[in-house]
Amino acid sequence: MARILITGSVDGLGLEAARQLVHRGHTVYLHARNQQRAMDAKSACPGAAGVLTADLSSVAETQKLCHDVNAIGNFDAVILNAGLMQGGFRKTPDTGAPALVSVNLISPYVMSCLLRPPKRLIFISSHLHRQANMASMDDMFWFKRGETRYQDYPAYCDSKLHVMLLANAVARRFKNTSVTSVHPGWVATKLGGQGAPDKLEDGVETYVMLAEGDYDEQNLSGAYFEPKRKIGQPIPAARDEDLQEKVVQACEEVTGLRLSA
Q: Does the keyword NADP apply (predicted)?
């Protein structure tokens, strides 16, 4: 049986994946933004081994989360499921980036730098990475465009390309970790909205497969998965190593943390 961490597991895909993995006999740790949400998560998934708390829009709290996770021991799988799609600019005090970008991109970078590498590391992207503006590569954190030009939807699409580029950069570095990225589907969660057309169980099925390692871990590190355990094809830019390194460099500059070779 595996030891698994799922960030953003109070509700939606993260919670349902946790429930299924607990039911299958795994040791699952949940993550919540604060103590109230942690209590909600524990009630919703009573078989979980524990709930860790951190506001992932904060670099300092994300660093503490990494410390807490490493103190537990080695993990077989980590699913970086936490994400934001709405909420406005909400400038974060430690980096100045919008909260959406902090949670969707900066926190996965910090965790990639500081967590003891698990056997399997899963990043959550989206099919909406196809709508990313390539010009955003020069302003990933909205420092140049600023709050007046900020819009949630374009920022979300951009962040999902950037996190896939990060995942592929990590996959090239971590030789003993199988690194994947996932489009979980457009499902009726708090993030996806009630009008979403896809099925929650189809996305969770892929989560469970990747968490358990029920795929060719060695040869599919760097792969992009879709619902129903399918391998997808991202846009060609996602495979561009120069763009991957551009994301790594930008995240290093804003966090002061270096991604190990």
A: yes
